[in-house]
Predict the structure of TRAP transporter solute receptor.
Amino acid sequence: MLTGVAAGLIALAGTVSAETLRLSNWLPPSHPIVKDVMVPWKAAVEEATEGRVTVQILDAPLGPPHAHYDLAANGVADVTFSAQAYTPGRFKTAMLAELPFLGDSAEAVSVAYWQVFEERLAAAGEYAGVKVLGVFTHGPGHAFAKGRDLSSLDGIAGAKLRVGGGMANDVATALGAVPVQSPSSKAYELISGGVVDGILFPFESVTFFRLDGLLDQGFEVPGGLYNTSFFFVMNERRWNRLSEADQAAIDSVSGEALSRLAGKAWDEADAAGRSALEGQVELHVATEEQMEGLHQMLDPVIDAKLDEIATSGIDAKAALEDMKARIAAESE
């Protein structure tokens, strides 16, 4: 009996000593970032640390999406994720991953982004108070509309398009559209109510937010009109309290591994989204002539963004060339 009690006390001690990280989540459980990225990452952390560290994905967020960086930095939550564009001007280097024409694969862009972040962008010091666990992007963004002919660029000019901010806002403006900044969760309401004519979105988001029954035209741009960058971070003090062994274990399933996991999830979701639109949305793929027109309108935006990134102390042009080369290598 004493042996059994001792064994129970040892098991209890092991349970009590386990570290639990609270992850604040602001997306529905069915969203690819949650079910295909956060949930697998949680399982990977727990396996890599042999159960010494567990992750609790909270049922309700501890604040709005734009507050999630500060929630981690201030220790309100242990782990958070969000889009850098939700806090304009704060994360200048993230714009490198949001530029037009970067690539057709979220996995390739995300992996290249992490590598360039680690070697070049982190030096800008934009992520104070946190341990950066990963950075990644969603799939390439395209234009979609209701009741407008998107077979030519003229169909975009003058259209009111919902955007999430960041690069998408600048792209919409450069194309002659009127950007309407709003959370993605409001997209259905805005389009069904006629407040906007369309949206800039990746394929996945069109179907996830049930817009396939509202939109009837799409304009697909090879390489994408834009990407949206995301961060995944942990409170720095909380990170420092972990043992070196557990830090190494978490690192082994984060960083490039996490960026690749997220990119793959987006690519699979985009492929499913694109297939779901067949027969419902008339999709126009940009021609060579249209691509030339897009470059004329968007290359100045790219140059302006590179100048802005450079104010963070980064050689922005070298970083972009490095990232393009890594994307090409990943895409082979």
The longest strand covers residues 130-137. The chain has twelve helices and eleven strands.
